[in-house]
Amino acid sequence: MGLFSFRKNNNDQSFTTTNPISDEVINDIPEKVFIQNEGKTSSISNDNSSNPTDNNINVLFSFLDRNHEGKGYDDALVNPDANHLSQNLEALKNELIRVVNKVKTFYEDFIKEINYHIDSRSRSGMVDTVEELKMKREIALSHMEKVVEIEKDANSDSGDSQGILISYTRGFKNGLAAISHHAILKRKL
């Protein structure tokens, strides 16, 4: 017998543990704590989380918040050429522009859809609903302005987008330093 033995209590579908030293029941732990039943998926809903198919501003910010230093470091170890650095920086900028375009398209379509609903609900005399839709449109328009600002910054290598370039470059330079340290500086003369 091990330190703890598990036995199933058939009455309430929970497990009990006994201490072999004192043979006393320690706790009843329901089965659902440890076992996820197949077919039943637990989904946690959060108002701040986006649908995976939505390309809203959160997608853009998550791209900007990613740390590219590790990728830069690994790329330097594979190919420590300055040309390689500039090509990868350009690829990062292109990826950022693609994300910006996805987000812009999402908001353009969303605003068109909201405008349709505003017109339709206005004709039906749904004043409160129209006001809520107008507020949603204002939020979408402010997000769109931020996306356009990030796009301009990306084109001029400044602002919020500059962080990904700095992060990647720092990682690449650290990779170059690691190569030099390992290949040259550690040698005993």
Keywords:
single chain; 189 residues; mainly alpha; three-stranded antiparallel beta sheet; 5 helices
The major sheet is characterized as: 3 strands, antiparallel
User: If you average the pLDDT, what whole number results?
Assistant: 79
Helix segment tally: 5
Proportion of strand residues: 5-15%
Order of helices and strands: EEEHHHHH
Radius of gyration: 28 Å
What is the number of beta strands? 3
The rough form would be described as elongated
Read across the widest sheet, the strand sequence of neighbours is 1-2-3
Helix content: 55-70%
Distance between the termini: 62 Å
Low-confidence stretches: 39-50
Quick recap:
This protein is mostly helical and 189 residues long. It has helices spanning 57-65, 69-78, 82-123, 127-155, 162-185; strands at 5-9, 14-18, 25-30.
Describe what this molecule looks like in 3D:
- This protein is mainly alpha-helical.
- It is built from five helices and three strands; from the N terminus they run E-E-E-H-H-H-H-H.
- It is elongated, with a radius of gyration of 28 Å.
- The protein starts with a strand and ends with a helix.
- Residues 39-50 have low confidence and may be disordered.
Record the SSE blueprint.
Elements: E1 5-9, E2 14-18, E3 25-30, H1 57-65, H2 69-78, H3 82-123, H4 127-155, H5 162-185
Antiparallel strand pairs: 1-2, 2-3
Helix pairs in contact: 1-3, 2-5, 3-4, 3-5
